[in-house]
Amino acid sequence: MSVSGAEDGVRKAIVVGAGPVGCLAAISLAKAGWQVDIYEARPDLRLPASKATTQQRSINLAISSRGIAALQAIDAAISERFLQTAIPMRGRMIHDIKGNQHSQLYDKDGQCIYSIDRALLNEGLLSEASMVPNIRLLFRHKVLAIDFDDRTMIIRSLDLEKDMRTAFHFCIGADGSYSIVRRQLMRVVRMNFQQEYIPHEYIELKMPAVHNEHGKPSFSLDPNHLHIWPRHSFMLIALPNKDCSFTCTLFAPTSELDRLATTGDILSWFKTHFSDALALLGEERLSYDFANNPRSPLITIKAEPYHYRDRCVIIGDAAHAMVPFYGQGLNCGFEDVRVLQALLQDCGVAPGSALPRLGKEVLADSRLSNALSRYTETRHEDLVAICDLAMYNYIEMRHSVTTPVYLFKKALDDFLYTISSWHNPSLEPTVRASIATIPFPTHRPSGWIPLYTMVTFRPDISYGAVRKKAARQSEIVTTVGWLGAVLIGATGFYWTLRVLRSTSSQRKE
Whose CA is closest to 352, among 33, 87, 54, 5? Predict the structure, then answer.
């Protein structure tokens, strides 16, 4: 079977899913020399008719060092362009029930995460992909079935209402939590699969810009913070946009949201729990958003293996959907692309080394098969780790950030980090350069490093190594805490005895 759209001697890759991760994967393959087709069931997100739908259920993205390192590894110019449209956030701004605000900076070195609109990022990557000569974008094309052994897939053109069969050498599934590629992969590999819906949902709200004394739009809150209203079992967050508005997301138990049945219920609930936010959201706008924006579920997905022979690999949410509370979903997906690219290069995969003839009789590409095997073997621990850490961070964000114990531990973390880690190795030019070709240059990070710093600002450390180091540091803090408690108790006991003896001696006299 011949390959449509492939040049002689160049192999064809199909990327299923035109989201940010799928687009970046396609650009990576195309730059390596593959002929790439991207198939997407949805319409082109850049069309005006598509934008209204995407704006209703899109959590703003927080892109951090891991995502930026991946963009730089694939195309440094793309990374530069996107950072120009992003807003730096240097810490969390905690809003308590009384309306007081407390800043918690992310990093002692002033590193920050960036707020970027999901739709703008996706549209930008689509435009970047469309400008690459050996990439084709095919929208409203839905994958129905995949025969990995025959290297063919059946795709339905939703516009023509017609099914077609197309061939490929290599397939990447980047088609999200409900991935058709993953489901097809389950037919040919013994995949361990776990899916869990947490009993919480989210709804997106819009906080409009205010106008300053000159009549120009301005931010109603500090734009260089991620704003959080933690309320124990639920929370509200707000991320800044370039137009001076904030995209707010309410996370709450499904049972809590079910009670907000009327406009009166909604306004009364917000007045009780988020009175300062309500003043900025506006009652009319809040009521409109609740009536028109969908309530969306939160899901965690773990799977393994991620590949089949030299034919297919799944990345992004298709392989590891996670709750959004560490802001690592996009960053982790981009990192998947960087790690995969590094392994393909390290294994010497050359897309121009085989003729485009396809079918069951084609011999397997041992180099590509080896690269995908290494991807599954080395990536699984990392992906399980970040899925678990993301769920843990929800507890921290909605409740722990307000407790004295958390504030004490954070202060201790920062103090130990300051005295033991004089610099961030990932900022060094040699380490930053090596990240493009080595998945994780730092295997055993030295010094004391807070968990959040490792996850967010250290792309040279794998998520698995992060979790192990964080566990060791937590044990040290716990041990020190117990020793401190014993010492304080012993000291108190000693002075109590001295007072009692002194009192007894005075009585005898």
Answer: 33
pTM, to two decimals? 0.89
64, 58, 19, 20: which is closest to 326 by C-alpha?
A: 64
Distance CA 462, CA 435 (A): 11
Give the Cα separation of 158 and 144 in Å (integer). 12
Distances (CA, A) of 491 to 40, 56, 498: 68, 59, 11
CA distances from 404 to 96, 226, 401 (A): 14, 21, 8
Identify the DSSP state of 441. Answer: S
* Sheet with strand 152-157: strands edge to edge: 141-147, 152-157, 162-167
Task: List phi, psi (to 5°) of 163.
Answer: -90, 145
453 CB contacts (<8 Å, ≥6 apart)? 106, 107, 417
Alpha-carbon distance of 53 to 7, in angstroms, equals: 37
> What secondary structure letter does DSSP report for 61?
E
The Cα-based distances of 209 to 22, 241, 244, 463 in angstroms read 33, 9, 5, 37
Residue among 332, 439, 338 nearest 73 (CA): 338
- Tell me which of 16-25, 94-103, 398-407 is least confident: 398-407
Q: What is the pLDDT of residues 113-128, one digit of tens each?
A: 999 988 889 999 999 9
Q: For 60-114, what is each residue's pLDDT tens digit?
A: 789 999 999 999 999 999 999 989 889 999 999 999 999 999 998 988 788 999 9
Contacts of 239 (CB under 8 A, 6+ apart): 60, 62, 89, 115, 226, 227, 246, 247
